[in-house]
Design brief:
By secondary structure, the chain is mainly beta. 0% of the residues lie in helices and 52% in strands. A hairpin with a 4-residue loop joins strand 2 and strand 3. It is globular. The protein starts with 16 loop residues before the first strand and ends in a 5-residue tail after the last strand. Residues 78-123 are annotated as: Disordered. Pfam families: Cupin_2. This is Cupin domain-containing protein.
């Protein structure tokens, strides 16, 4: 494998493994050996499904605004905010009026995200 295969662009819509998570919520996935990145795009007012998984997850809001639902709390987030979600904590996002784009980082990689498809996987 060429080292060029290890370089990506966050703004290239055809880069990464595409997955539709919910209505108005899509992601492009980049998987490594010990970590996985997911660039999630949420349409205005779109919301993911409340779900959980054993992998630790970090997120950073790249664009837009959103409400991070984590555990039993709803926390407004703005561009530049980032957070950690421990394994098995229920969570989702609800985009604001301009939509949102989030970079999620998983460790270890989520097995269900290593293939194209739809849905969040574990619930």
């Amino acid at each position: 494998m060429s080292q060029k295969d290890e370089f990506h662009n966050i703004d290239n819509p055809s880069d990464g493994l595409f997955r539709e998570l919910a209505a108005g919520v899509t992601t492009r996935i980049f998987s490594g050996e010990q970590a996985m990145l997911s660039v999630v795009t949420l349409a205005p007012h779109a919301q993911g499904t409340l779900h959980h998984h054993p992998e630790e997850q970090w997120g950073v809001l790249l664009d837009g605004s959103a409400i991070r639902v984590q555990g039993d709390e709803e926390i407004p987030v703005k561009k530049g905010d980032f957070w950690r979600t421990p394994g098995n904590v229920p969570h989702t996002m609800r985009a604001g009026p301009d939509g949102a784009r989030v970079l999620d980082i998983f460790s270890p990689p989520r097995p269900e995200y290593k293939k194209a498809g739809s849905g969040f996987g574990t619930t």
